[in-house]
## 1
Amino acid sequence: MSDTAKISLKALRKTFGPKVVLDSIDLDVLAGESMVIIGGSGSGKSVTLKCILGLLIPDSGSIKIDGTEMIGISGAKRKEILTKFGMLFQGGALFDSLPVWENVAFGLLAQRLYDRKDAQEIAIEKLRRVGLTPDVAFLNPAELSGGMQKRVGLARAIAADPDIIFFDEPTTGLDPIMADVINELIVECVKDVGATALTITHDMASVRKIADHVSMIYHGKMIWAGKKEDIDHSGNEYIEQFINGKAEGPIKMEILKS
Amino acid sequence: MNFLAVIGRIVFSFLDAAGRIGIFAVTAFSHMLTPPYYPRELFKQMMNIGYYSLPVVGLTTLFTGAALAVNISEGSSRFNAESTLPIIVVIGIVRELGPTLCGLIVAGRVSAAMAAELGTMRVTEQIDALTTLSTDPFKYLIAPRILATIIMVPLMLVVVADTIGVMGGYLLATSKLGYNSGNYMKATMDFLEVIDVAASLTKGAVFGFFIALMGCYHGFNTRGGAQGVGIATTNAVVSACIMILLSNYVVTEMFFSS
Ligand SMILES: Nc1ncnc2c1ncn2[C@@H]1O[C@H](COP(=O)(O)OP(=O)(O)O)[C@@H](O)[C@H]1O
Ligand SMILES: [Mg+2]
């Protein structure tokens, strides 16, 4: 299996001081599929993505992208592999010192693929792709609503036609209708660029819309993995509690312990 | 509580911080020397740091020069040594007050702004976003800021501070204390030496380095949310001011101790 996997995590471990956030994560994402990781807030979903992107350095384990081990890789090699990635951050993470179009075109300009004029045209085209009009291109990100910022973030994530796209809680903080619009866009954009997608979320509506496969993270481990169709009759009491959103069950919210 | 243990802990945490900041500085310089360069960012920072600090630097040193003249006139008249006033003003301003006041004011303005901006970028994941967009945050954010400050503080702000400070003394002495304009200028020019100007500019460059280093280091390593940004900003200004006063003494010793 792992020789065809686009992304393969083995026994990934990450601690912050005494706090074990990722205990032992195993995950295989196949080329062209859409994998969704679900899990409660603070369960280490974002940390997992950041380890794959090299923004955090895991304590141990293995991360393979297209079969290449990322841990201990040289800076130049890592940079080269990272150009295959697009990422939509949880809070958008738009650069507020730059106009919208420069945000979208940032990766293209950084890779020196285009001059500023061509990059601007591509940015406007990508903005159109996510349903934003060209006049938005010259606004400042702070002037946009939350939903529009998410769209700009999405346009930025797909701007360089990435191989692999990460979505960190793409619908958190949006109203249900806007959330559905964003989910729809994600599905279309991923299909457009033919990318492998890894989404993390706790929004079950997203899961049903976006996922081919689903994995659930709990206490630093993947406790379930399967096809989206199997999620409603998984026979796993953790999954059942999560998708039904019940307070009673095996998952205990760590209210006192933090 | 063991008193020695407390002292020891303080010393170790100080050394620890100094080591981290030292590594940060070396990393920043190594990124300054290797491409890609960001001239657009450098220019933006140079304008922001140099040009926009001019009014406050000019105002401060103008009145300090005048106040210095009042004090010296009062003191020197007791010894019938009024002719020393222009000399003491020019030496005092150029060697000491011009660069030091300029450094402390720019620390308040620029260190704080850098720490707040980079800190906000850190907590809103903008710095992570840069990495995923094929851009090294050290090259794009840190190197231009440090370089711009090292250039602008001595070559623009200290030059202006010295000139306006001396002018403040001159204006007060000629208008209120009855000094002859030509004699005052001649005394000033006769006693100002190249080494005084060299010391002034050296101080400016050293202060500029610490101003940017502390702003960048604390901003870049911000943790937590808005509160973390506040802490980073305070720490940046306080540590920049301490380093300015400390290095002022060291540079003065280097130039003038016999
Ligand atoms: N840089 C960091 N330093 C210390 N602790 C962190 C850091 N990043 C994340 N954590 C901790 O790791 C845990 C998981 O965080 P995260 O992956 O962001 O959760 P989520 O699943 O909601 O995305 C949290 O308890 C958080 O406090
Ligand atoms: Mg998260």
Note: Chain A has a mean pLDDT of 91.
## 2
Amino acid sequence: MSETKSNRREFLATGTQLVLLTGAAAVAWEHVMAGSPEKAPNYKTTEHWWAMTIDIEKCIGCGNCVRACKTENDVKEEFFRTWVERYHVEGTEMERPEVDSPNGGFDGFREKYKAGENSKNFFVPKLCNHCSHSPCTQVCPVGATFESPDGVVLADKTYCVGCRYCVQACPYGCRYIDPRTETVDKCSLCYHRITKGLTTACCETCPTGTRKLGDLKNPADPIHEFLQSHKVQVLKPQMATGSKLYYNGLDGSVR
Amino acid sequence: MRHLMKDKEHLFRMAALFVGGIVLFVIVRAVMLPKDFGKLGHYRPGALEDNAKRVPVFAGKPACLECHTDMIERQKGSKHAAINCEACHWALSKHAADPSVKPVRPDAKAICLVCHTANVAKPKKFPQIDPKTHMEGGPCNECHQPHHPEKGPEKPAVQEAKK
């Protein structure tokens, strides 16, 4: 207690210092708020190759990622760029899991199952897989969606004609038409954040480290260690989409 | 001969229509397409910039710790030290850019329960409580510091009043 008290006093005593710091931080922060990528000149698209790891064994289904994504990206109420599913697999019913995702997990998950019923229960966060051979980009007739040089599947809203081919082509159900613009919308892997040295909003607010953004072109990135020390799997590998969303502890029942 | 010509005339007309149509398409396409379309792939390179130029809403933990340096010491040794500030305090980039924008103080109990309410789908290893039975559902921060829950309470407001 006395420790925290002195800390508190320190905090107040360094008030003047804080004011100075405030100025310094404000300057450092300026380019981020300004939002123009040329003001963050160190970012080169050819030097990155983005991927994400999801550790199912850690997910607590708190829904922070779902809410953060909506806050960060102004996602309309009934649509989701990322969502969390709850799986309930009884005994040998691998082929018939019970899956629910009330409001995408936005409000968390009310208890629905009882422990010890010879079943397994777990959460699976989902989002765009940022495939490197994506079916969704291949079907676009106008070049309004594409794989960026740094490995992110992006949409070009000024070019999209709203034909919905890509929505149907995505094997993971990660795209939707934004009714406000009648153009496609999807996870951009927070492109406006990762190009400024920040992580995605979902990773930023994930309390357990379930989700982690990684740069496969950066040899120092901890993602390499993770991929080597875990048995990871991608969703629907039989479709050869080149997904870059690596799941640890993925159950066979997950579709 | 003239008969033959007359029979084929509609074909020539149709061919002319096709050629005209193609020429029109090529002209319109040349005018409408941005010059750099296709430079990086079958898309408009400007779309990269369009996607990148939005302003972040979450500032990120390093930004918080630039000013709230005391938090490093306060969280030392806690399992909560690994949680980013904005997982509880929510998006505060406006506050980080200008601290006079005062953040709302989170409601401790409501926040704790988002993560710690027991659920069979949660990993067994994760510490979970039943909010009805755990210490009779008392206010969490009366016994746990939000920033270091393994430790007892810390109430700056109360402490300041005592001074």
Note: Chain B touches chain A through 55 residues (CB under 8 Å).
## 3
Amino acid sequence: MGWSDIMQTAHLVMLIIICIEIIVCCSAISYCIMATRLRNRNDLGVIEKQDLNHLKKVDLIGNDNFGSDAMKQADFMNRYAADPFKDEEAL
Amino acid sequence: MATLCPNCSGNLLYSPSRHAMFCRMCGGTYAPEEVGESQRTSTTYECNIYSCPSCGGTIAVTGTEVSASCVYCGNTTVIFDRISTNQRPDGLIPFSISQKEAVEIVRKHMADAALLPKGVDDIKIENMKGIYVPYQIVSGRFYDSMTIFADHKNGNNNSVPRYYGRAGFCDLLNIPVEAVSSINNDFSRQIEPFDINDAVEFDEDYLMGFYSDIPDVTADELSDAAGKMADEMFGNLMRESISGSNKHVLQSRYWTKLYDNNLMLFFPVWFYTFVYKDKPYTLLINGQTGKIAGTLPWKKRSLKRDGIILAAVMSILLIAPFIIFDRLVTFNAMFTVGFTGFFISLICWLVGYQESSSVKKNAGMTQEGSVFNFVNERKG
Ligand SMILES: [Zn+2]
Ligand SMILES: [Zn+2]
């Protein structure tokens, strides 16, 4: 087998790989377009935002900014973990 | 239980387009409070309960109207079950969308839908049924604590994640909660809101020509549903207090306590049921505003075929240059196509998957089993 044969085989393999890559990519694009098409057609199921007037006299008891520290969320949630109506019933 | 015409003794039905009781025999119209025996001092009213042997759904009828087919599954034999005495609602919003208008709304909805299978748009007016759905109008106290995420831009225009904590309490005022356990709340909420300002005092006459449901949710279920809605509202309110983009609630915990003085109102809803490939589908239409909800079936084969054709055409167009210009086939080209292709594919699969699962979720709600929980309920 000569050098040119090897080169030709390599060339063919590369062509096949490129074809497969393109086909996979085009299938993905097509799938996405079809799914979006269906989604747009069925663009229902949207629950309208509730009228905020249903909430009266909103009083904040906790108002923290943790910056970029995601871990502080747990502390915050723990601080307000007790059932506030438990105390009310005890009174 | 029927209301008769003072002129000719024909049966009077409530007519949404005339906003009055209407006699089909002589054409007379009357205000609901003019006709029929007034039972406003009573705390109950009577109706006939029909049940469906196929799906187990029940529906209440007042007056002489006989239920010809099942509202929920389209089955054509429904049987008279019993006479039931129910608590009178405090009021109702009368239908203002007529059956004909509701059919037009469905027709338009179907005309706008691509890939609609043949035969589905053959609308049968007798499958369009007006049902008064009971809602509890609840008030109470509400506590909520949540953490919220937002993206901020720093000086170099890079996104920086920010975390916030918000806790608070408030009064809930007049939140309408759908009170029939067999109707999926996530579905009925899609046709809300209803405008309570149009509500009138309850009078049986409004039910003539329509069906009604009987409220059956427990106090706990009511409190859960109200809490879920209040949590969304509280989340919306808190998000508005934060700057940045891509804001969303990460965690939340809430407590709801409803007061006992609920109002029960009947809200008007048109149910359109059709059967496609042996599966019942139901669309809901708000009988006050005309807002429609429900996912229609689609031609699966056509969608697949279109997808394959599109993919094939794109592939051929992109592959052709490599075959025609032999020199283009190099290691560089292979890697470039590989990398860009990989990222485009990844994004497309993700977006496509998200879109199709949201369609499927909604489609599932339109179909049997999830819209109405009868079958599961009876089995369990
Ligand atoms: Zn008459
Ligand atoms: Zn049925």
Note: Helices of chain A lie at 3-41, 72-79, 84-90.
## 4
Amino acid sequence: MKWIAIRMLTGDRVKFAGLVFGVVFSTLLITQQLTIFVNLLLRGAAAVHEVPSADIWVMDPAGRTPDVTVPLPATSLQRVRGVAGVAWAAPLMRAGASVRTPDGALEPVTVVGVDDATLTGLPRTVQLGRRAALREPDAVFIDAMGARRLFGTERGALDQRLELNDRRAVVRGIVDSEPTFTNSVMLYTRYANALEFLPGSRNRLSFILVQAQAGANPFAVARQITAATGLRARVAGDFAQDGIDYIIDNTGIPINFGITVALGVIVGIAIVGLTFSLFIRDNIRQFGALKAIGVTNGTIRQMVAAQSALVALIGYGLGLALAIGFLELGRIYSDAFKGFYTPWQIPLIAAVMVACMILLTGLIALRQVLRTEPAEVFR
Amino acid sequence: MSPQLAVRVSGVTKDFAFGEERLRVLHGIDVSVRAGELTYLVGESGSGKTTLISIMAGILFPSAGAVEVFGTDLYTLSDRDLVRFRLATIGFIFQQYNLIPSLTAAENAAVPLIAAGTPREVAVAQARELLHRLNIGTQCDKLPRQLSGGQQQRVAIGRALIHAPRLVVCDEPTAALDAGSGRRVMDLLRDVALAADRAVIVVTHDNRIFDLADRILAMEDGRITHDGKHMPKDH
Ligand SMILES: Nc1ncnc2c1ncn2[C@@H]1O[C@H](COP(=O)(O)OP(=O)(O)OP(=O)(O)O)[C@@H](O)[C@H]1O
Ligand SMILES: [Mg+2]
């Protein structure tokens, strides 16, 4: 009897399409919006992920995230290096500045000053240029996206001059950096250079990156740093989470995406529910006839379940394919989607939501069928 | 030897509730339908024909009384057994055919067999054979909307007869057909559905086919007021 149920459903092209559309719509919206949401949140942790060799980030007690910094006195570095369990400690500066582009416009940038000796803090992948070129005077590396934004192409950025806070800088390399939440242009330079580029008070050290000695527990080392120096010390994983939490707490992003996802579910339920009810109403005499002939309620349940399952499977599959397709297109055509990916939990969440949706609408439809008295087909 | 009893209705009443009020539609009906006969149930609109045939066919519970079909007391069966009994023993022909629009004629006719668990190919092959006997063998692969009303009615008859039920009930089977088609449908029913141990009950308004009955039961206001081979004079 299941094939009869499927044929009843697919034979009604318009309603079948409507049902599948409802599920596709919800799946697409849920998957796509959750993907963007999660990836935007992950950008709060980009700066931490970019320096995988650092176990611990040390900052001013008032510091909160990689993007909300409070300067430290330069002497802090030596004090941290003196704490037991610290293998090495390197300075890192992250500060806002502005550059004058070749066509004269001012563009806000984030300047990252990395350790002069080890270049700790520079992204791993240098796409164009040599890593050692950062040691040249006035050298800066720019992130690939920023290079395209300021100079049109990555190659076109190489060896270009920039006015960074009215000082001369030369682009010597293009790096692949993880986009941050603000998506600003990233300029990497040596710490000593950064001090030149960013004049001001003496205290301009943003973070001290620490690697714990082999075998030492990073959490214990972090506690010891705090105890010895009074500075805030966060293990990398926690600090990455701090960056994400900051976005959650301080932006409307979770609410906005939450509303969109909820709308996706509600509109999906409305479309699928109404179409399913219409389909049942159109076929109620056929269902009634089947019941009179001697089809049991159990079989009727299986029939409606088969119809629901078919709609759910096709709609979910198409919706997921569309969501992934859109994301791929976005990645090809826009830097805004750089690094975006769909964690496996998201299709799972979408599947659960679609399943609930179909269960709800299917049960309502089933109730209509089960309530039909077989005697009504003689009227 | 007296003919076998197909249906025995004893003391059946049926009340319908209209809010607080209850309306009695059948008033203690006692009647039997014999196997081997084509029995008509006639009467004015609202006299209770559909209600009575529904109760006889096991799809509507009476308010009081009992119905036996070939010896089985229908309304003492569990819901499940009643459904099974209908599937095995009763064939239904509806005025509006109620065919499934997206199934072919042969597939529609095969539905009761499939519901009873016969494999699809076997059931459809059997349905084709039956549709040949019903003179619409060439229409087997068409959808209901591609058939005329008379052809659809034959498919519906095929569906009612495919599993060789011993009792066939029809509500106004000829109402939507022209006179000639209506008579042919009744002839077909007699040929295919009637046998010494099988019975056909037809509810009808259609005086064009009254002469084809073996027995006519007339109803008025929820009571049977006439029982005979011919229509009473005043009708
Ligand atoms: N489900 C129901 N609820 C309430 N009243 C009903 C119901 N079914 C039938 N009736 C009433 O029972 C009476 C008999 O109805 P029934 O359908 O049996 O008549 P009928 O003889 O078949 O009429 P027709 O020739 O018009 O089909 C009518 O007054 C009708 O209004
Ligand atoms: Mg009627």
Note: Residues 179-193 of chain B form the longest helix (15 residues).
